[in-house]
Specification:
The protein is of the alpha/beta class. It is built from ten helices and nine strands. The N and C termini lie far apart (40 Å).
Length: 297
């Protein structure tokens, strides 16, 4: 399929260890850097990052993966952790003959992306992790259990409102761009999940309670950037900074944003992605707080 603005899009249905999944590949013929694999959060599918293609395709090919447990991928029981999902990404890279890749992971996707870089260091060129933490917070664990009870009791509207309150910062934390509009969008998104999507989403949350979110070892030798919104309350900046320190990486926060920075400040996040993956300086950008450097890389 070729879109009006010159983008060629293909979709591949792949199988790893008996589990089917989907890879969307968009290209405009640019190759300023290695192919970029995007791994989104627990409620996202291969179309969730589609609007980013217009900013990123001038630099590289963009692949969004609908892994097992996502979208049209096969359901994935909670017993399967991030190692399995990271190896599924490796299988996709090999099947599509990608060679080394850049990788972007947000929230749940950041855990998979980090594990990929640790398990398959020969395949990673650069790694960017958004909205991540070293450990699950007690508040998130309690929320995940509460969402399961709400689903079992059919309280879908209450669950949608609760999810929005957990993922978004309250007004007293500071200014967040598009707060009201994003809250309405997310409330509608959570309330309208299909039965299949809801089951997958709840399983993802339970997967995070069952398997380690982040591991400092083995070391990642590729360049790493960790970021989040400056008002993120679900994976707060101190948690992201801790991950960056463990990985000897760079860390920064995006101004006037919380955990949902990819919606609130999408053009700025896309600019940050393009700059990082093409090795451009990240200092003095108007939408960023100062970049912190850990280690010698």
């Amino acid at each position: 399929m070729t879109l009006d603005y010159g983008t060629h899009v293909t979709e591949e249905k792949l199988v790893f260890d008996g589990r089917r999944f989907v890879v969307r590949t968009a290209t405009a013929g640019a190759s300023a850097t290695d192919p970029l694999i995007v791994l989104g959060g627990s409620s996202q599918d291969r179309f969730s990052w589609q609007r980013y293609e217009r900013w990123l395709l001038p630099h590289t090919t963009v692949l969004t993966l609908e892994l097992p447990g996502y979208g049209e991928g096969d359901p994935l029981p909670v017993e399967y952790g991030m190692d399995f999902l990271a190896d599924t990404v490796r299988h996709a890279a090999e099947a599509l003959s990608l060679g080394r890749v850049n990788m972007f992971g947000a929230c749940f996707g950041a855990s998979i992306a980090l594990r990929f870089a640790q398990r398959h260091p020969d395949r990673i060129a650069r790694l960017m992790l958004g909205g991540t933490a070293a450990d699950i917070s007690p508040e998130y664990a309690a929320a995940a259990r509460r969402w399961r009870r709400m689903v079992d009791e059919g309280l879908f509207d209450d669950m949608a409102q609760d999810m929005v309150e957990q993922f978004m910062a309250t007004p007293d934390h500071g200014v967040v761009r598009r707060r009201a509009a994003v809250a309405r969008l997310m409330r509608q998104r959570f309330a309208n999940l299909t039965e299949r999507e809801l089951a997958m989403d709840i399983t993802h949350h339970e997967r995070l309670l069952t398997h380690p979110w982040s591991r400092p070892h083995p070391a990642v030798t590729a360049p790493v950037l960790v970021f989040t919104g400056e008002h993120d309350t679900i994976t707060p900046p101190p948690e992201g900074r801790r991950v960056a320190k463990d990985l000897q990486a760079r860390f920064t926060t995006i101004k006037e944003a919380d955990h949902l920075v990819q919606i609130e400040r999408d053009n700025d996040l896309a600019d940050l992605m393009a700059r990082f993956f093409t090795d451009q300086p990240l200092d003095d950008l108007p939408y960023l707080n100062p970049v912190e450097h850990f280690g010698s890389r």
